């Protein structure tokens, strides 16, 4: 695993692309001023990875903030995702064009299949392979794919997904899935790393954070990185965006990593990839 050094440190994907292991997620950040400010503050704080999606409705704001930031395009790793209603071969290609128009970018760093829509995700994946082959995307991957979804996809795929972005936190570790992804060289990435805020209610987390002189969020995000998991905490607050990046002056002990692993209870705060209806 790569050494965790600083906010702009990276993990290497299976095609050699370097993906910053800490990013800003912009789910629920409103289009316009809110998302533009969040991206601006993140870039000012040193973040070089922004994660959006068609479904978030804020790609235009993300693109505007990137253009106005003064940071070179090549320095920022930008992810978006194709939404469920756009899945299928031709419709995915059209959705990608719309995403790129809104972002105002010439290429995307990572494009993901947002959910494993039954009967459609293989055609969607073929479209992503085409975008990858033509150089419009530097890496392609999936989101919310469990092991059986990945096995089904890999049976026909020409390109192995570079990333699988999943709900991941101390109550949902899914270590066998992590191990499977590692064996296939698929980078694991966390969404909802802070359990939609529920992590802050756990007394054992408070005790652990106090022992490091850090916040609960910082301890959990550091755990993600030490497990080799890319993490994209979402926030629209300047202080929190900055605090979420203050992860590089401490290290969790192996014992504390194991304690967080042991909190796993297979509990989801988001939808179940095997049972969603959107």
From TrEMBL:
- Origin species, per record, is Robiginitalea biformata (strain ATCC BAA-864 / DSM 15991 / KCTC 12146 / HTCC2501)
- By what name is this protein known? Oxidoreductase, aldo/keto reductase family protein
Query: Which residue positions are annotated as catalytic?
Result: 56
Site positions for Lowers pKa of active site Tyr: 81
Q: What does the record give under GO molecular function?
A: oxidoreductase activity, acting on the CH-OH group of donors, NAD or NADP as acceptor
Cited SUPFAM superfamilies: NAD(P)-linked oxidoreductase
Q: What is the lineage of its organism?
A: Bacteria, Pseudomonadati, Bacteroidota, Flavobacteriia, Flavobacteriales
Q: Which Gene3D superfamilies match?
A: NADP-dependent oxidoreductase domain
Q: Which domain of life is it from?
A: Bacteria
List of residues binding substrate: 114
Family stated for the protein in its record: Belongs to the aldo/keto reductase family.
- Where in this chain does the record put each NADP-dependent oxidoreductase domain? 33-264
Record-linked InterPro entries: AKR, Aldo/ket_reductase_CS, NAD(P)_OxRdtase_dom_sf, NADP_OxRdtase_dom
